[in-house]
Amino acid sequence: MCQGRGGNVAEAHAGARRPHTSGSDEPSSIIPHLGAERLRAVLDGITDGLYVTDTERRILFWNRAAETITGYTARQVLGKSCADGILQHTDETGRSLCNEGCPIMATVGDGLCSQIPALLVSTATGIIVTRAATKESFGQDLSSQMFGNPTIFYVLGGMLALISLIPGLPALPMLLLAVILPIVGYVKSSKEKKAQAAEQQDIAESTAAEKRKPESVTSLLHVDLIEMEFGYGLISLVDTSQGGDLLDRVVMIRRQCALDLGVIVPIVRLRDNIQLGTREYVIKIKGFEVARGEVMLGHYLALKPEDVDEPIDGIETVEPTFGLPALWIAEADREKAELKGYTTIDVPSVISTHLMEVIKRHADELLGRQQVQTIIDNLKKQQPALVEEVVPKMFTIGEVQKVLANLLREGVSIRDIASILEILGDYGNLTHDTDVLTEYVRQRLKRAITRSFIPDGRARVITINPEAEKVLSGSVRPDKGGGVAIEPAQMQRFLANLKKGIDHFLSLGISPMVITSPMIRRQVKNLSAQVFPELVVLSYNELEPNVEILSDWTVTF
């Protein structure tokens, strides 16, 4: 209790030390931290006497009730110590407490000391609640997290140095810890730096030792079945962030090949090649170039139909897929070209069409035993009895793969793998010659072959003279892989006559096709590859009965 001249006054302590401006007309200006005019009005309105002191017991605020009770005005007491004859702290016996046992100073120390245990309890609770499950004990986790980082020691040292400035707290021990902790942090940081340097040195030495070891070249043995390389100027066609959609087109190509040919096209590897021209691209099969093209970004490829004579402005070029003459025209001229009858193709479509034709042309090379095994495993889920009878009891995966590759080599779809295995099962007890088995399969797939090569049921074809067929049939050598043994002069006359017939069809704008007897179909196909590898050779047994055949050219010796 504080006693003044006229009664009792309640005291309050302001935790921060504030400077005093003597002679101030506004008492509230001495305690701006307590809240300006509104707070001053509230404190002045209290009927009990109230004053505020700092940690040195200087009076910072004196309300009106205190003036009335004590007889001292605010101007008389502000900035002075409450023990300077203004107020007297006494206990129940009347003993003065201003010099020893001042309740204000006891309140300051008790407030700080009571907060420390609460802080420790809340910190410990937070650590236990948020602790993650680890293999180490709680003590190991706590020590590694609190003292594992040297920065913690610097922070603790700084905090203790600041806390030591608070009056009433033991300054000397805290300052001593504030000096020791940063030293511990420095020593720990130095050890960690030395450990890191030693670790980096070990890594460098191990790397150097690894380089001196014999190089492992197994990763270099892998060969991509299909890959495309692009010049620097065409990277935007592949980069989706730049609007390129070629990757999506490749996905559609793989899907379309599965529908048209029944093959599982392997992943197409796309990469850039700085050795190519900026507008060039290359298609490789098993690491070797099989096709190349050049395109112009921002242009369209215009193909001129035969019945269109009106020219358009453009850069002359050759269509990369089929080798047709074409023009590169600007995007602004596309509509004009289409109105004149030209067919316009954008750059991604040119490349994707080229890729699809290359895949079809080399599908037999891309079909390996693993792909065949995958196809058969998929069929086994639907027709297990068929697969178990044919593979591997009658034929190995390799033999089936050779038959399928023979079909794909001549553009025959193998999507109906169930029918193919049925046919192989029918003839498996007669022969294991894959070329002969291929002919049997072709004859049983007449519907698919007819729809594929003669979709409208009517065809103009090249035929073989009966005498020439007889000569070829008689010269077949089964012991030589089914080849023919005829005189070179006869062979040259036959091929020259066949070449004339092919040129005749090409001049008419018709894809040449040869129809022959089933006995020599394979031999004629092998011979024609010398003059026109893409020539379609069919036998009469591979066509449906309702197909109308018109012979425009007959090949003789």
Set down the secondary structure blueprint.
Elements: E1 2-3, E2 8-13, H1 36-44, E3 50-53, E4 59-62, H2 64-70, H3 74-77, E5 88-89, H4 103-130, H5 138-147, H6 150-163, H7 171-212, E6 226-230, H8 246-260, E7 268-272, E8 280-285, E9 288-294, E10 299-303, E11 315-318, E12 325-330, H9 334-339, E13 343-345, H10 347-361, H11 363-366, H12 369-380, H13 384-390, H14 397-409, H15 417-427, H16 434-444, H17 446-453, E14 458-464, H18 466-474, E15 476-477, E16 483-484, H19 488-507, E17 513-516, H20 521-528, E18 536-539, E19 548-555
Parallel strand pairs: 2-3, 6-7, 14-17, 14-19, 17-18
Antiparallel strand pairs: 1-2, 1-5, 3-4, 6-8, 8-9, 10-12, 10-13, 11-12, 15-16
Helix pairs in contact: 6-7, 8-10, 13-15, 14-16, 15-16
CATH topology of the largest domain: Glutaredoxin
- Sketch the major β-sheet: 5 strands, mixed
Query: Count of helices?
Result: 20
For the record, the CATH class of the largest domain is Alpha Beta
Level-2 CATH architecture of the largest domain = 3-Layer(aba) Sandwich
Helix content: 40-55%
Question: What is the terminal-to-terminal distance?
Answer: 138 Å
Strand content: 15-25%
Mean pLDDT figure: 84
- Spans of 5+ residues with little confidence (pLDDT < 50)? 3-7, 14-34
What Rg do the Cα atoms give? 49 Å
Give the tally of β-strands.
Answer: 19
Number of domains: 5
CATH superfamily of the largest domain: FHIPEP family, domain 1
The SS-based structural class is alpha/beta
Oligomeric organization of the protein chains: single chain
